[in-house]
Each structure stands twice: as C-alpha cells, then as structure tokens.
Design a protein that fits this description.
With 164 residues, the chain is of the alpha+beta class. Helices cover 22% and strands 44% of the residues.
C-alpha cells in the first residue's frame, strides 16, 4: 500500500486531533502526529507540545459536534519520504451542547498553520496503523475564535394588500 502524500497525511493527523471525542482517541492522535521533541509556536510565542495538547483538549469541552474545513493547503515536498512543510488554513466549526434560540450554539476557530513533516527513524517513535514513521517536527499556528452571527427572523409588516 502506498503512503499518502504529505498534505493528506497532515490533514488526516491534525483532523484526527481536532475531531477526537474520547480522551483515549485524542491521546493516540497526538502520539501519531507529533514528534516528542516537536517545536511549537502559538501566535508567534514559543510553546510546548503539552501546552498545545491542553489548549486543544480544553476547547473540546461542551462540544457536541465538530466540522472541519481546509483552505489553501500547500506543500513544499514532492515525495512522502522527503521532509516537507505543509501550510494552510483549518476552520473548525464546533456545535455546542447548549442552544441559542432554537439552534445549537456554534464557535468557529480559524487556524493558520505551518507544519514541518519528517520521517523519524527513532525506534521509540510510535508508528501508526500503516507503520508510517512521519511526524510533525515543527508546528507554527495562529488561531482566532469567533462566534457566527445569530440569524433572527426578520419581521415583515402585515399589509392590507388588495384593499383600497
């Protein structure tokens, strides 16, 4: 079986992290996506993998459903076996457990990311289901949370049409 290209690999690994509902699935997704020594920068400030894990985990609280949307994803690599940088935008729409008016409350997170993906030959690296040793060794993200507007129904005046 051939390895997925670097863009598909990165989207599936990051997607698995943000879509995970159970703690065990979330922890496994982190283990198969990142190198233990991954360099992390969040909003241009140095961070750690543990801080990133805690931040993503905290955002999962009170979430009922998640939808991911990818935009402008590019890669510098031609082969899955060579180091590559994958960059793009990930938009996460979270449906919350509480409601606003008749619909579930939503929260949008826009993440601009740049991830360096490399093969790790270290024997301590946890391989994925395809024995793929690729991991994200450097991750730069800038994120912004927004709340989509609430669309109220527009009242229409009741006219006396046809009467003169």
């Amino acid at each position: 079986m051939s390895k997925p290209d670097t863009i598909s690999w990165t989207q599936s690994r990051l997607g698995a992290i943000y879509e995970a509902q159970e703690d065990e699935v979330f922890a496994n997704a982190f283990g198969t996506a990142f190198s233990p020594s991954c360099e992390v920068r969040v909003d241009h400030a140095p961070s750690t993998l543990d801080e990133l894990r805690d931040s993503v985990s905290l955002r999962r609280t009170a979430t009922r459903g998640i939808a991911l949307s990818w935009e402008n994803v590019i890669s510098t690599g031609k082969s899955p076996d060579e180091p590559s940088v994958v960059a793009g935008t990930l938009i996460i729409t979270r449906s919350m457990m509480f409601r606003i008016r008749a619909a579930a409350a939503q929260r949008l997170t826009h993440i601009n990311f740049s991830a360096k993906v490399e093969r790790l030959e270290d024997s301590n690296v946890q391989t994925d289901e395809n024995d793929d040793p690729r991991r994200i060794t450097s991750l730069y993200i800038t994120s912004m949370d927004t709340v989509p507007p609430i669309h109220f129904t527009t009242p229409h005046s009741v006219g006396q049409e046809g009467q003169e």
